[in-house]
Design brief:
Length: about 70
């Protein structure tokens, strides 16, 4: 499952104009000390993990409805 989440998160990152393997230097719009700042230093695709999980869950629901 983690490979699927990463694959979808990478696709979302690319669709948003980010290079998935570029490291996060700062979290855009986050205050210093915000929880999002914990992602600094990680690959940019990590910013889209939660969104990828939602997408995968929605896709499963659509598949189940067919």
């Amino acid at each position: 499952m983690m490979q699927k989440i990463e694959a979808v998160a990478r696709a979302i990152a690319e669709a948003r104009g980010r290079k998935p393997d570029d490291l996060i230097e700062t979290w855009p719009g986050a205050d210093p000390g915000a929880p999002e700042q914990a992602l600094v230093g990680l690959p940019s695709w990590k910013m889209f993990e939660a969104e990828a999980k939602v997408f995968i869950a929605a896709q499963r629901a659509l598949d189940a409805a067919e």
